[in-house]
Amino acid sequence: MSIQSQISTESHPGEKTKKYDRQLRLWGDHGQSALEMAKVCLVNANATGTEIMKNLILPGVGSFTIIDDNKVGGEDVGNNFFLDKDSIGKSRAHAATEFLLELNEDVNGDFIEESVDNLLQNNPTFFNNFTVVIACGLTEKSLLDLANLLWDNDIPLLVCRSYGLIGYLRIVLKEHTVIESHPDSALDDLRLDSPFPGLSDYCKNLDLEAMSKKDHSHTPWLVILYKFIQDWKRSHNGELPKNYKEKNQLKELIREGIRKSENGVPEQEDNFDEAIRHVNTALTHTKVPSEVQQIFDDPCCRQLTSESKPFWILARAVQEFVANEGSGSLPLRGNIPDMTADSERYIQLQNVYRDQSNQDICTVTNYIQTLLQSLGRDEPLSVSSEHRSPSSSPGQPQDNISDSDIKLFCRNASFLRVIRTRSLSQEYAASCSKITDLASRLDNTDEDDELVHYIMLRVVDRFRTEFNRYPGAEPDSMEPDIAKLKGCLCKMLQEWGVNPICVKDDFVHEYCRYGASELHSVAAFMGGAAAQEVIKMIVCQFIPVNNTFIYNAMKQSSLSVEL
Amino acid sequence: MIKLFSLKGQQKDGAANSKSGMGPKKASAAQLRITKDINELNLPKTCLTEFPDPDDLLTFKLIICPDEGFYKGGRFTFSFKVGQGYPHEPPKVKCDTMVYHPNIDLEGNVCLNILREDWKPVLTISSIVYGLQFLFLEPNPEDPLNKDAAEVLQNNRRLFEQNVAKAMRGGYVGTTYFERCLK
Amino acid sequence: MACDWPNRWSHLQKILERSGPYAHPDFEAGQEMLPFIKDNIKVLVIGAGGLGCELLKDLGLMGFMNIDVIDMDTIDLSNLNRQFLFRKQDVGKTKADVAAAFINKRIPGCKVTPHFAKIQDFGEEFYRGFHIVVCGLDSIIARRWINGMLVSLLRYNDDQTLDQSSVIPMVDGGTEGFKGNARVIFPGMTACIECTLELYPPQVNFPMCTIAHTPRLPEHCIEYVKVLLWPQEKPFGDDVGIDGDDPSHIKWIYQKSIARADDYSIPGVTYRLTQGVIKRIIPAVASTNAIIAAACATEVLKIASSCCQQLNNYVNFNDTEGIYTYTFEAEKKDNCSSCSQVPQQLRFSEDDKLQDVVEYLQESAAYQLRAPGIVTMVNGKNKTLYMSTVKSIEEATKDNLKKTLSELGLLNGQRIHVADSTTPNSLLFHLQLASSMEKE
């Protein structure tokens, strides 16, 4: 992950910079400003809810609003760190807001002591101001109502819940675009399979034979590999080494290129070793990654309108580049890894890549200009050097596109991502439910499949709808509820057309044991995970889960699944 | 799955609030590992170790007296400091003797891959001793710390040989004065 | 408990008072479980930083009322983005004290005892006083130390089997940016820190010659100033080393690094990068710490109550791309230098000489050592009793051979480590010293 990539060049860090130093190294100053602009709404300040908020308030989210019409009960104070004994009987929204505000003086917070159902009915536009809405502790019906409203208004929703030793998280949003996904391990963009003119010129001007011993052993491996690949192509009708055997032959040729001492023993030349080590990766064909190709093929990219988001205009411009000047390749990323080399030639080589990258960015900029004109969005390109991510306010078509936006987009072109989840009502609708297909994999009674917990959570909600309480929630209700829950399970699986034996009775028992308890450590785990997903949505960096995450604290294992 | 011990009925009545004045009774992991390394240090005849405090195996000197090559007849002392991170982290090694050498600078910093970028926990003190000894047999002018010495070695081996001899006898090479270090 | 209120523990009680098919076979569901956790179990939390703050909150809300916390640090402004028990006005105070006071106030009945100290300041008696140790550390050295301590507390039965009542389980968490891990260690029974030392990534050290003469990256320029220029120029006086928390030091290094980078046309030296390289800063966010600490706290509850099977025994976490966990069983090494050492008994009398011990180790059919190097600890300090393979040590220690064991200050129960080329690891012996001639 290139965590240092967006570091600003400040020389006297202010207090805020110092306070947030450890996270600025992850999402940069521009990520931080996006976070500080964000308005987050939490529905229900139960333990899971306040834990999520804690992990958003500490890093400095702009503001939060808590919606909760519950009064604090003794059990709330028992598992929620942001309430105390004196809060019992008072408004949970109010008490939690006050305790949470103590965490960070930079953050604003308020609360509304009202139920979501009331708000949905009386003030449906209320939610339109939020960047993200987080829903905890809602019944199935209220949740679906809220989700529908947010879906219609294009407000991202995150649903989170802790149930005994199980956690559940669902992201619901129409479209989320990511430019900086910060992949943990990405192949370098070096183009040795299709060198650009600047690279060829630079390498051609270096003569390995004529070099001093020192220069020979400090020639960057990129140059060495370039030369040996060209030699290979000359003797193989212009083709690259195609298979394992040919790649090994190329490695052998490089090995023979190592200088020998007077008595014929090969010298220690680290750069040649590096060249040999990189044969396989460097010969990987440079192509547009499938995720990015999908973005190019997306209707949003193919049919731009005057309302198109900057992301899609940028994507389209890059696509035009790929189709024309790029000859099938994305704009050059423009950086090279560290390697054995003298400073001078390493920096020269770095500049060769950087120059080509800048040239590609220039070409893309021209496409952007043409596109904007044709869309009737004739505002000039902002030329300010101030860094602003195009993603900092997603969904705002009137955003202009700055030079630094284009640069950032081009340099991250191979890592672009678009996520679109299904709505909750789609997930819940019998006609297009995915669970039937997915559950068939449970037939083999695979103990390790956490999908069963998704089914169980749906079943306890069914139980809740039917009996107006969760199974095992009341004292002494565990044993009698086992049979009832089993009944709900069978009905539900039947409706889904799933073989009932795929959920073991043990799970029914275990869920009755839980009795909808919210164990603090499970709430804290989910609070961390959910907050991180919210941060991803806000800063438009890193890749949110698509779209459901199940945490099993019994085994410390998890499942991500698209539902 | 392990059979879990039962905590029940197990009373823990340690002196839980007082710091111990006794200190540990068991050697640290780094200490145990270095004991093993030192006990099995198989030194070439050109090397010897000195432990100023035999109870402190983490701090010692290595003396190398090359019997061939440019540095034959010289006596070079290295100080080793092994930290509690050993062997996850390499020991810190410095050359105490001022030496005219392409891979050792005048402050005593040593350029040897296994001391820094190529260190692995499976390596031992012996590995470092062999690495250092090799530096005196085959100084490497391609990756220098002392650039002047490296350039001379590259361009004029005779002059380099003379400079090494001069430095070891005690005297100036260029503007730098070297203490005598012949054995 | 006097400070409880109705329904305070109702969430937790469901898990502890009801049996379930996924509980550990030892689990005894019932109303005694919660009071047992509250009144009997003593937990030690090591570190009151990002993980430590979370752990104290999690454990306190899960019924653990007797907690000690050790931390040697004071609060820094850069802690506040995740160490949520601290406020701006706490900067400069000790982490352990502030964290303990906060928890004790917010969670009635919870008694967190703070120790502003290093873990090395405490001995066996102290650590023996806990049922479970939870670590939220950022240092491998500290992890290895506490691991060694818990291993040294193990007792073995006469038939060499482990006395399970001497096992103090260790739950260990670690985070770095969006990555983290949590693990459960039963010392002597499951993989320990030393068994898996290679799981920790090595420190990044650039080659010295790169730093000195062929810098290519901004980091190389900063390392140059740190490693070579600082000791040469001594900008703040002869004996002043680099203090990463002193802005004037960082500023000096930053400016010199810029100059160095300019000489080589290397782009990218910034103040933030300089600080990061000098202090070896690991990025950190609230969310990852919350996640890993929570997983650790759940495991503590499982160990204390058996309400569910424990993690077996390692989980990796990463939420850069989606949310990813990977659970696996780290393997205990048969030849682990720490936890595989079952101490052997060495029976001698106080009047026996060290020479007798050496000869015994060489001649006894059970050992047949070649050239044993023998070390121990006396009054908390390392002592080399004898080592024949290194000339200077042999000379310094050969007089010990003629001394009696009591003259050498060795006590009954003394732990003695013996290294020999015939064994892959040092052997650990417990010296059984008889005052009269009882040697078998």
UniProtKB/TrEMBL annotation, chain A:
Disordered: annotated span: 1-20, 379-401
Compositional bias annotation for Polar residues: 1-11
Domain THIF-type NAD/FAD binding fold positions: 20-557
Biased composition (Basic and acidic residues): 379-389
Keyword vocabulary terms for this entry: Ubl conjugation pathway
Single GO MF annotation: NEDD8 activating enzyme activity
Keyword tRNA-binding annotated: no
Signal peptide region: none
Pathway: Protein modification; protein neddylation
Lineage: superkingdom: Eukaryota
GO biological-process terms attached to the record: protein neddylation
InterPro entries, per database record: APP-BP1, ThiF/MoeB/HesA, ThiF_NAD_FAD-bd, Ubiquitin-activating_enz
Pfam families, alphabetized: ThiF (PF00899)
Keyword Cell membrane: no
GO terms for cellular component: cytoplasm
Gene3D superfamilies named in the record: NAD(P)-binding Rossmann-like Domain (3.40.50.720)
Family in the record: Belongs to the ubiquitin-activating E1 family. ULA1 subfamily.
Descriptive protein name: NEDD8-activating enzyme E1 regulatory subunit
Automatic annotation (TrEMBL), chain B:
Gene Ontology terms, MF aspect: ATP binding; NEDD8 conjugating enzyme activity
Residue intervals of the UBC core domain: 29-173
EC nos: 2.3.2.34
Reactions listed under catalytic activity: [E1 NEDD8-activating enzyme]-S-[NEDD8 protein]-yl-L-cysteine + [E2 NEDD8-conjugating enzyme]-L-cysteine = [E1 NEDD8-activating enzyme]-L-cysteine + [E2 NEDD8-conjugating enzyme]-S-[NEDD8-protein]-yl-L-cysteine
Keywords: ATP-binding, Nucleotide-binding, Transferase, Ubl conjugation pathway
Pfam family, one: UQ_con
Keyword Nucleotide-binding among UniProt keywords: yes
Pathway membership: Protein modification; protein neddylation
Active-site residues, Swiss-Prot/TrEMBL: 111 (glycyl thioester intermediate)
InterPro entries, sorted: Ub_conjugating_enzyme (IPR050113), UBC (IPR000608), UBQ-conjugating_AS (IPR023313), UBQ-conjugating_enzyme/RWD (IPR016135)
Top-level enzyme category: transferase
SUPFAM superfamilies found in the cross-reference section: UBC-like (SSF54495)
Statement: the UniProt record of this protein carries the keyword Isomerase: no
Family classification: Belongs to the ubiquitin-conjugating enzyme family.
Record protein name field: E2 NEDD8-conjugating enzyme
Species this chain originates from: Capitella teleta
Automatic annotation (TrEMBL), chain C:
This enzyme's EC code(s): 6.2.1.64
Broad EC category: ligase
A GO molecular function held by the record: ATP binding
Recorded catalytic activity of this chain's protein: ATP + [NEDD8 protein] + [E1 NEDD8-activating enzyme]-L-cysteine = AMP + diphosphate + [E1 NEDD8-activating enzyme]-S-[NEDD8 protein]-yl-L-cysteine
GO biological process, one term: protein neddylation
Keyword Ligase: yes
SUPFAM superfamilies: Activating enzymes of the ubiquitin-like proteins
Active site location: 209 (glycyl thioester intermediate)
Stored CDD domains: Uba3_RUB
Domain of life: Eukaryota
GO cellular component: cytoplasm; nucleus
Protein's UniProt keywords contain Ligase: yes
Annotated Pfam families: E2_bind (PF08825), ThiF (PF00899)
Keywords of the record: ATP-binding, Ligase, Nucleotide-binding, Ubl conjugation pathway
Pathway membership: Protein modification; protein neddylation
Domain (E2 binding) ranges: 346-434
UniProt function note: Catalytic subunit of the dimeric E1 enzyme, which activates NEDD8.
Stated family: Belongs to the ubiquitin-activating E1 family. UBA3 subfamily.
Name this protein carries in UniProt: NEDD8-activating enzyme E1 catalytic subunit
Top-level taxonomy: Eukaryota, Metazoa, Spiralia, Lophotrochozoa, Annelida
